[in-house]
Structure formats: structure tokens, C-alpha cells
Amino acid sequence: MTTRVFNTSIDPFQYRNYRTFDFETNFNYEEKIAWFEENWTHAFLYSALYLGFVFGGPAYMQTRPKYDLRSALTIWSITLAVFSSMGAVRLWQEYTYIVTKYGWKASMCDPIFYTGISGFWAWAFIVSKLPELGDTVFIILRKQRLIFLHWYHHVTVLIYAWYSYAHFIAQGRYFLTMNYTVHAVMYLYYGCRASGMFKIPLYVNISITALQVIQMVIACVVNLYAHFYRNHGEYCSTTDAHTYISLALYMSYFVLFANFFYHTYYAGKVKGHGKRKAT
């Protein structure tokens, strides 16, 4: 296993003023990272199996009636919302401490958040990318429209997240914190919608997609800053290869989410307005 090098001038956040759990405090980050260093490429196998279901599932369901699964989807979504909320709270606590005490550069370049309690939630995030593929199962079994953005995002995030964790990438502090936060809101929305108990206004959908677009912009900026620091001889736990891969992925996510936002919430409205004026 590779020996991990930290900036010794930075102390990890201790969570002394917060309620903690044994599964957090007893977390062995070295053991988990060692496993991912040796096995992160398993993500390619899981992705291949997932893609087989993405293309084979709709064909299988084509001549079969759709499943309702409303109750199961509600429970699934609320469970992921609670999980994401817990992860978001823990990582925001750590992030606020690092930025306040050590500054923006440390938040982008030091990987100390992989250790301790925040380290547990970093690992939990990486692992969660595998069960989150279950989102697609509900879409296919309920015979809903499966768009390219959905399965492309799931596949690439799984591979990228497992790769990044294995290589102790410091920018992950931003990527994980933002993703936990957006997923907490997104899965709560999914759960409420699936339950059928709430009428959700359109601005909620728009806000969630807008948050996803903003997330991709921030991720690109963070990558550029980390790359700048590293290439000017300053300490930054990343690599050029990772930065190029990360930038390419987040730029593709930005284009896809922005395109989805435009065509879902804007283009149709403009087209409809034009028709009304012509009439």
C-alpha cells in the first residue's frame, strides 16, 4: 500500500462538539483505501453489468406490463435522502473548519478529510455509487423513459469516484460535499413525488436541476485551481491525469445538465409562447 503524505501543518476536524457514532469513530481509512487501490477497477465490471441491464432491460420489459413499485420507490428514495443528508452534514462540518482555519487552498489541495469521521463518509459516498445504480432498475421496471444523461452519469461517476478514492484526490472534498447536498434534496423530492401524497410545484424541479448545473461549474473551477497550485510547485494532492479526466467529465456533465435544463424548462415554454402569439 502507498504511504499517504499529509500536510503536517493541518489538523483534522475532531467533531468534539457533535454527537458521533461508533461506526464513524472506529473507521479504518487505511484499510479501505488499500482495498480500493487494489480493486478500484472492479468498477468497470459493475459498469459493464449495469450497461447490459440498461440496454437489455427495456427490451425484456417491452412485452410485459409495467410494475407500480410506488411504495418501494418511496422507501428507496427517502432512505437515500437520509443517508445523503447525514453525509452532507458531516462533510460540511469538516469543510467549514478547513476553510475557516486554513483557507481555500487547503480545502482544494489537502486530503485530510479522507481520515477520521469525515473519512467514513467519504468512503460511504464511494461505496454508495454502486447501490445507487438501483435508480435505473425502478425506471426500467416502471417502463419510464430512460435518457442518456441518466445512465451515462451513473456509469462515469461510479468509475471516477472509485478511481479518485484510490488515489487520495484532494478535490474530492468539494465533489463529495456538493453531491451529498444535491442528492439529499433530490432524493427527498423523488420520495415525495413517488408517495403521491404531495403536489410538488415546478420551481422545485427547476431548482434541483439548477443546483446540478451549478455543481458542475464549481467542480470545473476547483479542478483548475488545484491544477494551478500543483503546477506552481505548491503542495496539492492530485495528479495531472486526474485533473484532465475530471475536467472532461464535469464539462460533459455541465453540457448534458444544461441541455436538459434548457429543453425541459425553457425551450417548450418559448415555443408555446410563440405559437400563442402567432394565433
TrEMBL record:
It catalyses: a very-long-chain acyl-CoA + malonyl-CoA + H(+) = a very-long-chain 3-oxoacyl-CoA + CO2 + CoA. It is a multi-pass membrane protein. The keyword Membrane applies. It holds the Pfam family ELO. It is found in: Membrane. The keyword Transferase applies. Its EC number is 2.3.1.199. Keywords: Fatty acid biosynthesis, Fatty acid metabolism, Lipid biosynthesis, Lipid metabolism, Membrane, Transferase, Transmembrane, Transmembrane helix. The chain crosses the membrane at residues 43-61, 73-92, 112-130, 151-168, 174-190, 202-225, 245-267. Belongs to the ELO family. PANTHER family: ELONGATION OF VERY LONG CHAIN FATTY ACIDS PROTEIN 6 (PTHR11157:SF17), FATTY ACID ACYL TRANSFERASE-RELATED (PTHR11157). This is Elongation of very long chain fatty acids protein. It comes from Saccoglossus kowalevskii. The lineage of its organism: Eukaryota, Metazoa, Hemichordata, Enteropneusta, Harrimaniidae. The gene is LOC100367727.
